[in-house]
Amino acid sequence: ATSGVSTGSVSGRLPPYDALYYLGVREYFAEDWEKAAELIEKSIETRETILLRRRECQDNCVAAGHDRLEKLDTEKGSVWDLWAIDWVQRRAECIRFCLGQTISPVAQLPVSADIHYEFDTRNPYNFLQVTYYKLGKIPNAVAAAQTFFVANPSHLEMRNNIEKYRRMPGVTEEAFQDREKDGHKQWYLYDAALLAESSAEWARAAEVWKKCVNETLRQTEECRAQCELEGQGIPDEETAKTTGVFEKAAALSLNLLSCKQSCVAIVATRPGRISPVEDFLPTVLEHLHIAQFKAGDLRGAVQTLRSLLLFYPSDSDSLSNLQLYFETLGGDAEAPGTQPTQEISTYVNRSLLEKKLLYFGVENLNFTFTDPDLWTPEEVVPESIREAWRVEREKLNEKMKEGEKEVELDDSGFYAGGTVPLIGVTITMDDNMLNGTNRVVLDGALSQPECDTILQLATTAASLGDGYRGRRSPHTPHEKFEGLTVLRALKLAQDGLVNQSDARLLHEIGERVRTLLHSYFRSPSALYFSFTHLVCRSAITGKQEGRLDLSHPVHVDNCLLEPETRQCWREPPAFTHRDLSAVLYLNDDFEGGDLFFTDRDAKTVTATVKPKCGRVVGFSSGPVNPHGVTAVTAGRRCALALWFTKEKLHRDMEREEAEAAWTKDGLSVTKEEEKGAPAPPRSGRNQNSRERSKARGRVVGARDEL
Ligand SMILES: O=C(O)CCC(=O)C(=O)O
Ligand SMILES: [Fe+2]
């Protein structure tokens, strides 16, 4: 059926996008870049149009066959079911006809799970990145790289490619476009609203939260609409033999409802993340409510609170807030304008009806259903399964509470208090003085001349204008950020731009820190370098007074800290394989720039460390050690940041490349033609999603990079 596929279908109707994709990939491997780009782009575009048409056809056919429904009640006897089936068939016919007008018959067939996986993980953009690079279309390559990276934040080659694009002359910030942005606008709004909230711009926050609610509802509708036409797994042969048409119809409709319910979790999952944010919509409404209240929009706040109460009708905080509003507004809180919004009440009612049917299926038809919501009230769960449901719910709550509990003990396997095996290095602060677990400050790891040499190296690399020139800091607009890796230093040395011995010193001091930490934290296994870079943060001139931001916001190095819930998610985009962190400081001639540790709330500061030449701060990279850096308000603060892993698999291949070059003593490691070879796309088919994301995060040779 696919042999006739061309970039435009003969009939003028849309061809199957999976076939276009396969053809494009074939051209990619045949290195016909023009054709590869054309076909892959066409496949992306066709898929989008097909999804859109489906949505339109559904909307157009909502009323099809409705006249049949009236007959259900009027007809006597047993013919009601024929009218019901007639209604279903009319609607199906309407949709089929509608789709057939613009989509070719082959393109209407369901696509394979592999294709779903490819497009869900945005792999087409991985191919496109290389393809456009080969074609010399750099802006297109940059957009493809960015689009892929958003959904694969732990893909190291793409991260490096992006870094390299950033350094290319003529590439501007605007080129880093996420082409799939529209598909998850709710997250852009979510982040923007949080930002407005953090600077207490309440009116703006309320406005953006409201947009976020609407976008969440819109995305949910989009997702649900696709369920209907995605072909809900037809009951298997076995079931088909043993059951009749009504059982089959029931199984199909339960599958459909279950698919629609699962949209809650899909919409609540950030691109590139595995777990959804629990109770996403109620959480957004909660934020909206607070923002409206703070902005003085009491009517809006009451309306949102009432919407929120639809999810949690007996929530005592919400009820007492409502009472308060009622008193403040002089009884006006009952006015019609302050009822829950129509959209939310439709959403909740529909969801409740669906859940009722689904739990009915669980009770009577052996159906399995994973409820994506925490707010589901007990009443919709049938008595006979309520006990089991409660136990499950309890388990989930326990798990969440456990995450909330402060982990006093670090399960990293490290145990502070070992020896310090280098002469001249002393312990300045231990766990006790730093009020925490597995933290240490050591002094004397570098001499002043060594600090000066590395500082000079940073200055030279920065002044070369080779890409390490100051960029805006990724953390704050008030600072510049320069970074240098060992491999980069080696390359500069090979090009005669810096001293070989200085590049080697940069490498050597990392080894020193590894020796110190391995011993002090009594590491049970070998420690591998996971990533190392020399980072300088400099205050930009002017605009420094009254800064409230941080040079590096509070974070945990190997998981995503959620201060509100005190949980830390060990999943991408966090660098989950980092086990031990260290920062080796080089200077103190700047203002601000203190490192501080906090509680899991990201607010309560438990210890502060002032940088100075030769000072090392070491700590386990997990949730016991949230930390941040205060604003650098004058001068330049340089430090060597190092992360270690216990897993060999995750070791830093760039560092090994530099080491190999030194071993060969002066031989050029990267051949000219290899330099240009971008990371080839990799696919992780037939693995579950956790394994997949692990595979994506795996480090492979730097040869695969641009
Ligand atoms: O520079 C510092 O003191 C800490 C930097 C840091 O926490 C990080 O890069 O993860
Ligand atoms: Fe950090």
UniProtKB/TrEMBL annotation:
Residues 532-646 form the Fe2OG dioxygenase domain. Residues 655-706 are annotated as: Disordered. It comes from Anguilla anguilla (European freshwater eel). One of its GO terms (biological process) is collagen metabolic process. Its cofactor is L-ascorbate; Fe cation. Coiled coil: none annotated. Keywords: Dioxygenase, Endoplasmic reticulum, Glycoprotein, Iron, Metal-binding, Oxidoreductase, Repeat, Signal, TPR repeat, Vitamin C. This is procollagen-proline 3-dioxygenase. GO terms for molecular function: iron ion binding; L-ascorbic acid binding; procollagen-proline 3-dioxygenase activity. Its EC number is 1.14.11.7. It is an enzyme of class 1 (oxidoreductase). It holds the Pfam family 2OG-FeII_Oxy_3. The lineage of its organism: Eukaryota, Metazoa, Chordata, Craniata, Vertebrata. It comes from the Eukaryota.
